[in-house]
Specification:
The chain has about 140 residues and is an alpha/beta fold. It has 2 domains: about 5-40; about 50-125, 2-Layer Sandwich (Transcription Regulator spoIIAA). It is about 50% helix and about 15% strand. Helix 3 (about 65-75) runs parallel beside helix 4. The longest helix is centred in the first third of the chain and has 28 residues, at about 20-50. It is elongated, with a radius of gyration of 27 Å. The termini are far apart.
């Protein structure tokens, strides 16, 4: 083997073909991590300051709660407008899920056009004020 072949075998893979020194690579990694952290923080703060709108379906019952819970969990800790004009039937389990979501830390909920069915069911079981529903 000649000298050039010996030298290429002793260079670690992460440095082969790179002009950056080990310290420069570490600094670049730290800079990339800091930039990623700042952009992630910005996106998180932006999503918590903007209002997100969730349309409630016509039936908000135990059968639909898995999907609704998954949808709500994406907005936990943010500002959410619940559009309830299409709700024709809501059961106690549906109201309990909405109440738990409304009461979760750092979550702000605002109602948009709650239906008569939504309001009357919440009022019947005594949850309209806890849910923050406007007086009809």
């Amino acid at each position: 083997m000649n000298e050039i072949e010996n030298q290429s075998q002793t260079i670690p893979d992460n440095q082969a073909g790179s002009s950056a020194q080990p310290n420069e690579t570490a600094e670049n990694d730290e800079n990339d991590e800091a930039l990623f952290s700042k952009s992630t923080d910005f996106l998180m703060s932006t999503s918590k300051t903007k209002w997100s709108k969730i349309h409630l379906e016509a039936n908000v019952t135990l059968a639909q709660l898995v999907d609704l819970k998954e949808q709500l969990s994406q907005y936990q800790g943010g500002k959410v407008q619940l559009y309830g004009a299409e709700v024709g039937w809501i059961d106690t389990a549906g109201l309990q899920l909405l109440l738990a979501f409304k009461d979760s830390p750092d979550t702000t909920v605002e109602w948009i056009e709650p239906s008569t069915a939504l309001y009357s069911t919440a009022q019947m079981i005594g949850l309209s004020s806890q849910l923050g529903l406007p007086e009809s």
